Amino acid sequence: MSFVEYSDLIQDGDVAIIYLSHNNVMPVKVQQGAQTQTRYGVIRHSTDLIGQRYGSKVTCSKGWFHVLHPTPELWTVALPHRTQILYTTDIAFITMMLELRPGSIVCESGTGSGSLSHAILRTIAPTGHLHTVEFHQQRAEKVAEEFKEHRVDHLVTVRNQDVCKDGFGVTGVADAVFLDIPSPWDAVGHAKVAMKKHGGRLCSFSPCIEQVQKTCEALQDQGFEDISTTEVLLREYDVRTVSLPLPDFGPDPESTEEATPAAPPNHASISLKTTTLPREMPGHTGYLTFATKPRT
Amino acid sequence: MADNGDDDNQYRIKEGDYVVLKRGEIFKAVQIQPRKKVIFEKQWIFLDNAVGQLYSTTFEILSGGNLKPHELKDTASPLDAVEAGTDNRNIVDDGKSQKLTRDDIEALKEKGLKGQDIIKKLVDNHATFGDKTEYSQVKYIKKKKKKYENTVMILKPSCRILAMMYHGREPGKICHLRYDTLAQMLTLANIHAGSKVLVFETCAGLVLGSIMERMGGYGSVIQMYPGGGPVRAGVENFGFPAHFHDTLHEFPICHVNALLAGTLDTSAKDPTAENTHEKQLNLAAEKEQNQPEAEEQGSPEEESMVTNTGDDAGQDVEKTEKDKLKEAKVCPALVIASRFHPCPVLLGLLKFLSPSRPFVVYSQYIEPLIECFKKLKECGGTVNLRLTDTWLRHYQVLPDRTHPLLLMSGGGGYLLSGTTVATDHSKPAGSKQAEEPAPKRQKLEDTEG
Asked: pLDDT at position A272, please?
């Protein structure tokens, strides 16, 4: 197992994703002899996981679950939160708009819980590199540890410093920069320095419009071009069959009298397959501001 | 991968390159060919002078359609010294504010005046320009710039640019797949270097090309195609290096049934191989090249087409087989985006996937995906089913004038995504060897919630 390569069988030391239900997904560090408690009973790693195929159904004392191969998307819904994280909808759009691909060199700050980092690493492997900066020491250490466990540490450098003061720790190498910090305008200059002479793409994620405003001004001042701000929202549909009753208008004098007794009296209804939207849904994550650094 | 500053070569436009022309928000993909006329935004252009220049250079279009690098970005706007009003209470729409007539403007254009200068003339001859508010002035100039500025930017193609281009120019050709939806597909299918991806698309090759870009020439893509041969116009536009095309394989969808039927014969002998289907797929492709008549399905005409268009047709058969077997090591992720009813396509092609692999289906309409969703729930073999769409909103961000754009895209299509799981219902051997006797093993009804 690795976050950048599929394998078929679960091995000691892997991170497996336990899929209990739609909204209940948990990561498990697979270790010989270890046990994990779930609401469906205990998982014994040695017998229930190791040597099994990813995608298998595993039976516990009180039920069953599926064990899935880790992907950045599953990790995003399963990971232990240390900060607010970016979710797949935003990540997908960021990845495309930053033009990430195998071989890209990317700078990111802050690393936070590493939700976006894993997605970036998946995309830029095997020849790219991620330089990620996190000013919170404990978070930086924790995420570095995770990268190692997930066997992607060869693709990433974690720096524990303040990006607004000290920058990204690299100069003239990045194809793309991503900022998810409270004051991105303070880091725009550092972003420019980190980027290739030939140019590249930048994205800044901010929840508040005032932050966007200041960031756009800073980008303009630094000579960035093609500045655009977007918001992307996900709607997830519930699929269901609904039954709509038909009203009873009473006997129809027009119709032939013989047919009347045959017609069902009150409980006529039509059922149809349709979708509903949840009563509440995420209405805002953050504004995504993209820009191009021209050749300098 | 360090950037050693002076190495401009890889960023230069070369003859034969596939490039994208850009003006404002309008894109057009073309190939750089000597003395070839290209129409862009109602203008004839010759791209010859672009050769040797750097990508992302802005060019001015001279009379005769030749290009000249537009060096100085004139940031000084023509309104520098103009004063501005505070409101529009005294501005009356009498249709006489602009003293230049249409003929005057045409004459200026004929004279070969630069866009910048025409705008300056328009402003100078505008009676009430000075009464307009500063914001209104900026807006006026922006509008005129769009109309009169004769520049074009030449970009290196990318999935981002081409997806935006197709969505803007020819949405019908790509089943109205909006670029943010395409972005979701690439991520939900976990497309990355080294993966094996099964694709069925009728989006002019845009989806295929985007997948290939994300794989960077590592791994392989098997394109299932309907009809006589795969459509790949969109792939050309990406201008991939030759070795990317070595990772691209194709298989006619009309032979899937035969392929699956063939699998039944041999898979029994090889119970351990989880990739039997995939091997079969390759074997069948091989067989087809050697003896097209042997296949039961498809017209002979189609088959001969296949033989001729096949990427591997001319190659050493033995080498091909080895390559393909190597490639069969892991089964692919599945991506579907077509004008066909997605239900049979999905149910048919899902059979080629290993357990714990992602799949994603695009449809312009939600109803067929509702049907897919129901069918998958009935059949089992998948988890994490999600029926979604995304909503994309652009913002104008300017000092004191920030708001969402007035116009947004109505719909970018729908996605059904999920993960395959083992359909085998036998319990893993290990779980029964618990020391303590398991209490009641009650079956859960539907963990899917």
From this structure: 92
